Q: What sequence folds into this?
C-alpha cells in the first residue's frame, strides 16, 4: 500500500500524475487545495489570513466562513475535479473528506499561539486540528470494493463539526494508520533543497535521526512536509519520498527514489 | 428502504429533519442546493442563467464555470455541512457526489431546446444530463458497512466528466434502482397545492393514472417533483410522498401520509 499526497493545483496541472495513477491498485490519494482556496477567498472578498506559530510554522486562520470555503474548495471543486479526471484515466476513484463516515478525526485546537508584531498571543475560536484517529475499516471496505479513495479536508472534530488540518500531515496520519510502505509527498519542487532558489541543491537522502537538521533547512510549506515525514516514520511508515509532481511518471519516479528519500 | 430528498437550504434550516434522521437505518438521503448555488453565483459575479424548455420546465444553464460552482456548492458546502450536522445527531453519514465511484451516470445532453423570446432555439455545450445508471453495489457496500449515504450532484457523464442534473429526479432514479418502498420529497410546502398561494389547497392524494393532471397543476419547482414522482413509480417505487420538510418530525409525518401521496 502506498499513500500519495499531491497539492491542489488547479486546471490542467497534474496530467502526468493522474495518468501515472492509471492501473495502480492499493493507492490512497490525499490532496491539498490551498492555492485554489486562496483564489476563492479573494474572489469572495474574504482574503485569507495567515499567522505564524512561535516555532515558525505558518498556518491559515480558520473562522466559520473560512471553514465553509474549505468545504467548497477542497471537498468540492478540487476533490470532485480530481475524481472526474482520475475516472477519465480509468481509475475507480471515490472522493471523501475527513468528515465522511468519520474518516479522519481529531481534537479541536480551540486556541492557538501565534506571533504577531514580535509578541506571542493566543488566538481563540480557530477551527483547526490534527488527525488522531483514522477510520481504517472504511478505507478497507472501499479498497476491497475496488475503489481508490481520494481524500481531503476538512477532518471531523471529536466534539463534532469540521476542522482545517494540514494535508501533508493528514497524509502522514493515513499512511501510518494503514501501515503503508511508502508515503510520497509530491510537490512542485524536486524535493528538499539546501537552497530553495537552486533546484540543483537537492538533498537526496535524510536519515530518520537527522530529521531535525532537515527541519531547520526546510522553508515555508516544505517545513510541513518534513514534519509530516517525521510523523509518518514515527507511525511506522517505512519510507517517505518528497518528489516532483511534474516528472514524466511522478509516482514511478518517487518509488524509484527520485527526490528526497527519508527513512 | 426509503429515499429522502431534501432541498439544500442553508444555515440552521432542517433541524427537525436532521433530528428525525437519528437512529434510522436503511435511509438514503439526497439533497439539492440551488439556493446556495444562486447565492454563490452572485457572490462570485457569475449570475445564474435560467432557460425554459418547450414543455415549460425551467432549468439552469450549466457551462464549465457553473459546473465548478456546482461542485463547490452541492458537493462541497451543502453536502459536507449536512454530513457534519447529521453526524452530530449520531447518524453515521457519508457524503458522495454522483461522480464518486461512478455512483450516478447518465448521457450528456449536449444540446437542449429552449424557448427564448417566444421562439424555440438550440443551446449547445450544456453540461446537463439525467441519471441512467446507479451503482447499487456501492450503495449496498456502504449500507452494509453501517453508513448512511448522503448524495448529491454532479453526476458522471458516460463520456466522462461531471454533469448537472435535477436532484428530485436523481432521488427518483436512486429510489428506483434500490427498489425503495417510499420516496419522500420534502420541501417548504405542505405538498402539491391546487392554488400555490393557498397552503390549505393541498391535494392529499394522486393516483398514478392521474399524474398528467397533477403535472398541469404543479408550478415551478413542484413540476420537477411530480415528474420525479412519475419516474419513481414507473421505476417500481411503491409510494411517493411530497411533504413538508419543516414539520416537527418530517420523515415520520411523510411516512404517515401527511402531504401529497402519489401511488
A:
Amino acid at each position: 500500500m502506498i499513500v500519495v499526497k499531491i497539492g491542489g493545483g488547479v486546471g490542467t496541472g497534474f496530467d502526468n500524475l493522474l495518468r501515472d495513477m492509471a492501473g495502480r491498485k492499493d493507492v490512497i490519494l490525499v490532496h491539498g487545495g490551498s492555492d485554489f482556496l486562496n483564489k476563492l477567498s479573494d474572489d469572495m472578498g474574504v482574503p485569507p489570513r495567515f499567522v505564524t506559530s512561535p516555532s515558525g510554522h505558518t498556518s491559515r486562520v480558520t473562522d466559520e466562513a473560512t471553514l465553509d470555503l474549505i468545504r467548497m474548495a477542497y471537498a468540492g471543486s478540487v476533490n470532485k475535479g480530481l475524481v472526474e479526471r482520475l475516472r477519465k484515466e480509468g481509475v475507480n476513484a471515490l472522493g471523501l473528506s475527513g468528515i465522511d463516515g468519520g474518516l479522519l478525526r481529531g481534537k479541536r485546537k480551540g486556541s492557538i499561539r501565534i506571533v504577531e508584531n514580535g509578541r506571542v498571543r493566543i488566538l481563540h475560536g480557530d477551527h483547526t486540528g490534527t488527525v488522531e484517529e483514522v477510520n481504517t475499516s472504511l478505507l478497507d471496505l472501499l479498497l476491497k470494493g475496488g475503489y481508490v479513495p481520494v481524500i481531503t479536508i476538512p477532518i471531523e472534530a471529536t466534539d463534532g463539526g469540521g476542522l482545517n488540518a494540514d494535508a501533508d500531515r493528514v497524509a502522514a496520519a493515513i499512511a501510518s494508520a494503514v501501515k503503508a510502505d511508502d508515503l510520497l509527498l509530491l510537490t512542485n519542487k524536486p524535493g528538499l533543497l539546501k537552497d530553495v532558489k537552486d533546484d540543483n541543491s537537492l538533498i537526496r537522502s535524510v536519515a530518520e535521526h537527522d530529521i531535525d537538521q532537515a527541519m531547520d533547512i526546510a522553508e515555508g510549506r516544505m517545513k510541513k512536509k518534513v514534519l509530516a515525514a517525521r510523523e509518518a516514520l514515527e507511525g511506522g511508515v517505512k519510507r517517505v519520498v518528497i518528489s516532483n509532481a511534474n516528472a514524466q511518471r511522478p509516482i514511478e519516479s518517487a518509488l524509484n527514489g527520485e527526490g528526497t528519500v527519508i527513512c
